[in-house]
Amino acid sequence: MNVIIIRAAEVRTIEVVSLSPGAGGAHRASQVIRYRGFLGIECYSVVLDASVRDETATYSYSMCPPIGYAQFALPVRRFASIYRRWVSLITPINTLLHHSDRFNIDVVVGHHETLECIKATIKISDRLNSKKVLTLQLPLYYGNSTRKRRIEDAYRLYLDMIRSCGDNTSYLTRLAARRLDSTTEWLYVKTIQRLIDRFDLVISVSKAIEMDMGVTSKNIVTLRNGIGFEEAELNFLKKLRTEIRGSADTKKPCAIYSSRRDVSKGIIEALVATRLIRRNIPNFKLIITGRSAGWYVDAIVSKLIERLDIKKNVWLAGFLPRTEVLKLRKSSRVLIYPSHVDAYPYTVAETLTMGIPVVAYRIPALTINYGDIEGLFLVDEGDVEGLAQKVVEVLEKGQVDVGLPRIPTVRDVVTEEVALLRRLVRE
Predict the structure, then answer these.
(1) Extents of the domains making up the chain
(2) Torsions phi, psi of 62, nearest 5?
(3) What's the mean pLDDT in 103-124?
(4) Which pLDDT score is estimated for 7?
(5) Looking at residue 409, what DSSP letter applies?
């Protein structure tokens, strides 16, 4: 007869999470809360999106039972994205907790850098007189002037494309909003900094976050292992790597863009690059997968595909189950990843592990976490012509050697986090 010994909980936590399918931050959060209980943590969750009912979320919540929810007092997501940041800043948060006084909570952990999560974590921890921790999976703002300029350049390109599509009203509205953002950026940053100073500990998943924000703080700790794979997942990706090896010469000249369809993720640059690639490779095909950033960006993407005359070169596959995305990635020769906003991208780790080369911008999230690994080709951020030329070179070369990135297991990641939580509780 087997006897299972379960240790008494050393730390009790409330985990403030969003498990919306398709979001990288949600994927990491679901992994972390599933492992908490195995490492001496008694955890409960407060949900930021109570409507999520997919299989992954259900399993994660079974390991970290929900005891409430949190949301803005106003439907912030219904506001246009150009106004959402400021609406989020001034809108109070509503929370509902069930019997939380019974649990003697030690720490409240927020898993996302969104204002909704930050405000909810602070409000719940103040109510329960618990310590508060925030996990940063992306920079909260960009204090690095060079990085900030490059991101602004991406938005200027987006605005130029809106104007080229004949939507002058939207162009002027968004131009005014961007100028308002830039002139009031100092106020937003000051407000965010005051909120962050209220946390007992801020956990960063990558050194790239501090570099992009341009800050160092005694309450920010960067994990050695920011992201991880499940062992079964890692073995599956390595199996695909074996199947893919040596198949480049038999594949069509096809690339995949596998990220959110958003300006900050480089969707506009990927389309412009496709037009440039087609000059050298007429039958080039770009597959676009990932979540939508909003109906208006999707409308501009569709118009731009027609305007650039690349309708035959682009397949808008949209948001798909992960198994389907991996199938499409397996059939592709290269991943185009012109992202401006990242910390430790899963997509790049998965793709390199599969043995597929990646062409991307030279941003801290990639140079710090993946370095000069074989098969990762980096060009200057915002250099769309360089991006296109590098893709052409990879496709014309045929078989490309791709190094295997050193990615730990999820258990390693959570073990490091749990050690930080235990230390915090003992202080």
Answers:
(1) 11-143+185-227+409-426, 145-174, 231-397
(2) -70, -30
(3) 92
(4) 43
(5) B
Q: Is 3.40.50.2300 the CATH classification of the domain at 11-143+185-227+409-426?
A: no
pLDDT of residue 349: 94
pLDDT value at residue 3: 34
CA distance 214 to 209: 8
* Percentage, residues of the chain above pLDDT 70: 88
Element (H, E) at 234: helix 231-244
pLDDT per position as a tens digit, 312-357: 999 999 888 888 999 999 999 999 999 999 999 999 999 999 999 9
pLDDT digits (tens, 9 = 90+) for 268-323: 999 999 999 999 999 999 999 988 887 878 888 999 999 999 999 999 998 888 88
Helix (H, G, I), strand (E, B) or coil at 205: coil
Is the per-residue pLDDT at 6 higher than 50? no
Cβ 338 vs Cβ 264: under 8 Å: no
List 94's β-bridge partners, or say none: 71
- Rounded mean pLDDT of the chain? 87
Tell me the CA distances in angstroms from 351 to 9, 236, 275, 325, 411, one per residue in order.
Answer: 37, 12, 24, 11, 21
Contact 272, 308 (CB under 8 A): yes
How many other CB atoms sit within 10 Å of the CB of residue 329? 20
Which runs of consecutive H residues, i.e. helices, occur in 258-345?
Answer: 267-280, 295-307, 322-330
Q: Is residue 105 within 8 Å of residue 128, measured between CB atoms? A: yes
Average pLDDT over residues 245-273: 88
Alpha-carbon distance values, 162 to 176, 275, 401, 421 (Å): 14, 17, 39, 47
Burial label, 416 (beta-carbon count in 10 A; 0-12, 13-18, 19+): middle
CA angle 178, 180, 181 (to 5 degrees): 65
Do the beta carbons of residue 194 and residue 313 sit within 8 Å? Answer: no
CATH superfamily, domain 231-397, is Glycogen Phosphorylase B; (3.40.50.2000)
Tally of residues, the chain: 427
Report which residue type is found at 283.
N
Distance from C-alpha of 157 to C-alpha of 175, rounded to nearest angstrom: 11
Say how far apart CA 18 and CA 13 lie, in whole Å.
Answer: 16
pLDDT at residue 53 tops 60: no
Dist. CA 70–CA 407, nearest whole Å:
33
162: amino acid identity, one letter: I
Q: What pLDDT, on a 0 to 100 scale, did the predictor assign at position 127?
A: 92
